[in-house]
Write a structure and sequence with these properties.
mainly beta; 252 residues; rod-shaped; 2 domains; Jelly Rolls; 6-stranded antiparallel sheet
């Protein structure tokens, strides 16, 4: 058996330069040299720092043009000392987001007992509400039941609602997300009774995604769910789900 010899990888060349005194410290590569920088290690003495600071490596071309500027992930407090390393293949993996409150809220009920006459509407109410992040959401009760969900932070919100009417007849069920104080940004959907039923199709649903606040409203925002119907007879709603999700202030 024979093997083909391979060239040994070039050995790393260590360069040490002591730069006592004020920053920035610098090192100039010798002329007519061919270097591929793999890593740079620096000792940091922040004993005279007036505030927090970040160590940063800057690489310049031969004619003084900035080619790269690489800050570290670590922020040093005044008086800190330490060692920092710059090496692309050794950069820290981004830490997973810390577990926290879910940016969602859900209301549900099986005993709303909301009776709506034909040609009229009524406001939904709920006797159950999930845990939620109180910096994002809030709620208002009336008669011991939740009737309003409050948006506290600027950003993108999605809302979804579903109701179960007691019976279906000619006409339609109409639901409306009402943003209190804002008559221009609500969402309305009408569901024909022929498309819904306890056994013949989905229950009436409504959903909306919007940025809050817009030019027509301000924080905190208050939203209600209203249901109307024109079947010609009274309609009672007991079961319903009403869900809200906060996606954050940026695009998602």
């Amino acid at each position: 058996m024979s093997t083909t010899p391979t060239a040994a990888p070039p050995q790393s060349q260590l360069i040490f330069a002591d730069n006592p005194g004020d920053l920035p410290a610098n090192y100039t590569l010798p002329p007519n040299s061919d270097f591929a920088v793999n890593s740079v290690v620096a000792r940091i003495d922040g004993s005279a720092a007036a505030g927090s600071f970040v160590a940063c490596l800057s690489i310049f071309s031969q004619d003084g043009h900035l080619m790269a500027r690489v800050p570290t992930d670590q922020v040093f407090a005044p008086g800190d000392t330490g060692v920092v390393t710059y090496a692309p293949f050794l950069r820290k993996t981004a830490a997973a987001a810390a577990a926290g409150s879910l940016n969602a809220l859900r209301c549900w009920t099986s005993n709303m007992a909301l009776t709506i006459a034909s040609g009229n509407d009524g406001r939904a109410s709920y006797d159950n509400i999930s845990a939620f992040d109180s910096t994002v959401f809030g709620f208002t009760n009336s008669g011991g039941r939740t009737v309003r969900v409050i948006y506290k932070k600027a950003g993108w919100y999605s809302a979804f609602a579903q109701v179960v009417p007691s019976a279906f007849a000619a006409g339609s069920v109409n639901m409306h997300f009402l943003y209190v104080g804002d008559t221009l940004s609500g969402a309305t959907v009408a569901t024909e009774s022929a498309l819904v039923g306890l056994h013949v199709g989905p229950y009436p649903t409504i959903s909306i995604t919007r940025y809050f606040p817009d030019e027509f409203d301000s924080l905190p925002g208050t939203t209600e769910l209203w249901i109307a119907q024109n079947s010609g007879v009274n309609m009672t709603i007991n079961q319903s789900n009403w869900m809200h999700v906060y996606h954050g202030a940026g695009d998602f």
